[in-house]
Amino acid sequence: xxxxxxxxxxxxxxxxxxxxxxxxxxxxxxxxxxxxxxxxxxxxxxxxxxxxxxxxxxxxxxxxxxxxxxxxxxxxxxxxxxxxxxxxxxxxxxxxxxxxxxxxxxxxxxxxxxxxxxxxxxxxxxxxxxxxxxxxxxxxxxxxxxxxxxxxxxxxxxxxxxxxxxxxxxxxxxxxxxxxxxxxxxxxxxxxxxxxxxxxxxxxxxxxxxxxxxxxxxxxxxxxxxxxxxxxxxxxxx
Length: 238
What we know:
single chain, alpha/beta, Rossmann fold, 6-stranded parallel β-sheet, 9 helices, 9 strands, elongated, NAD
C-alpha cells in the first residue's frame, strides 16, 4: 500500500460523514465506456458527433438515429458492479458513507447495494411515455425496435438528462446539502469538466477533499489528497 492510499485509509477510518462524488471512470472498470478517453464515445466515428446525437434538439428531430445510437452505446447489457461500487456500498452499510452522487446513468451503484444514490444525469433504468407517463424498464427499451412506443401510442423517453436539458433541481439541492455538510468529500473517476455537476465541489467546506483519478484534473491543487490510479483498485485497498 503506497503512502497516498495509506493516507486515504486513515481519512476514511476517521470519519462517519463521507460523501462520494463520481463520474464515468467509476464504471469503466465494469466495461462501461466513458466519453473522453481514447476509446470513449467522443473518439468513435458516427455520422453525427455524440454531443449532437445526445442533445434534446436531435432527439426531437431525428428520434430514429437517436435511439439507434442510444441502444447501441448506452444500453449496455451484462455489466456488473466493480470493486469501487462494492466498496462504496460497504462503507454506506458501515455508517461511514452518507451518499453517493453520480454523473453515471448505469444504475451500478444501486446494483452493488448503495441506498442513497443521487443520479445527476438520470438513469437508463427509468423510461416514461411522453404522452401518458407509463413507466418502462431497461429490458423493454433494449428490446424495442426503432423508436420505442407506449401501448397508448406515445413515444417513450429515457429518464436521462440530454444536452440542452436542465438537471433536476431537487436532486442538485440535495447534492449541495450533502456536500456542504460532509466531513470528507471523495471525488473519483471524473475529469471535473462537465458543468454544472463539476461545480458541486465548490460547496464543500471541509479540509479533507480527496481526488482519485487516473489523470490530473483542473481541481488537483485544491485537493488535500490526490490519489492517481484505477479507482476500483484504490478503494479496494481501504
